[in-house]
Amino acid sequence: MKKKSKKERQKELLEMLEKDCFYTDEELASYFEVSIQTIRLDRLQLGIPELRERVKNLAESNLDKVKTIKGKEILGELITLEVGSLGISILETTEDMTYSKTNIIKGHYIFAQAESLAMAVIDAPVVLMGVANIKNIDPVRPNDRLIAKAEVVRVRNKKHYVHVKINNKNHMQVFRGKFIFDEIS
Amino acid sequence: MKKKSKKERQKELLEMLEKDCFYTDEELASYFEVSIQTIRLDRLQLGIPELRERVKNLAESNLDKVKTIKGKEILGELITLEVGSLGISILETTEDMTYSKTNIIKGHYIFAQAESLAMAVIDAPVVLMGVANIKNIDPVRPNDRLIAKAEVVRVRNKKHYVHVKINNKNHMQVFRGKFIFDEIS
């Protein structure tokens, strides 16, 4: 297959990042069969910031929508938020989140990402987490990227049922949890 | 009833604190019907440090017993530890642990106290938290004292079942959780 021209590549790159802003430069370089440096130049010419910056920009635009808590109290960057329905956040794991004996991320960091995202999606002024049933499917290591998705599955009698799934950067599910929040006044 | 002599009071005070080191100066003053200042002087003469110091001393003597994690990774002061069976920890809640909108302690701090204590009681070199079913019974406020008790209820097929209950300083249960940890190698 003939290699794409620079113009074709840049057009396609722009389209790809508009659909999904989470491609890394490495992934794009591999896809287009060019060097990472070429992708960086493409981004520069197209005025597309680096992944970390793109994620941060997205997150900031979502924080204002949160009702139940202050946006900055969410652990992770808030990527998508449809209050009352759906939320997505990203957490980059680091060495200082681990149990030092195992080098595995402490369960309460993952729990905190899930719980705070679940709170953020709820369409109510004030809620309290009542019940959580959670499962850690695979150990999480440092330098991973956790993508959490929270969905409101039911609201009844001032109780909000929220399901949260967390995948790692290899798209493997590492956590799932069911939460019930109570509206309080 | 005749008020106890200083000698009688100090003898009884010493016995009380040997049985249960968690009495506050306020509680002791109220019990003996003397001023808090008198209790402080009694402690000074008897060489008994203040409550916070007593708790810290107890905790340090327990940390060395922990197998699964480093002692300092436990959230709260480890008051009692019988590895493979029972653990008790105390966490003083502070303003900076709260969701600012509600002034309620974030669920993941309570979860972290419970999870790290549950890990500490397990008699195995390395474990991973697999499943947790938890319930927050009452909102926890800052400036409270959370007393968590973890009990190993069963060990089977390298799975460790641990129940954790947390009471506040008024002896009301605020949290309970059931955890299953898997031994990993």
TrEMBL record, chains A, B:
Pfam families attached to this UniProt entry: HTH_DeoR (PF08220)
UniProt keyword annotation of Ubl conjugation present: no
Keywords: DNA-binding, Fatty acid biosynthesis, Fatty acid metabolism, Lipid biosynthesis, Lipid metabolism, Repressor, Transcription, Transcription regulation
Gene3D superfamilies per record: Hotdog Thioesterase, Winged helix-like DNA-binding domain superfamily/Winged helix DNA-binding domain
Molecular-function GO term, any one: DNA-binding transcription factor activity
Domain HTH deoR-type: 9-42
GO biological-process terms attached to the record: fatty acid biosynthetic process; negative regulation of DNA-templated transcription; negative regulation of fatty acid biosynthetic process
Protein name: Acyl-coenzyme A thioesterase PaaI, contains HGG motif
Organism: Alkalithermobacter thermoalcaliphilus JW-YL-7 = DSM 7308
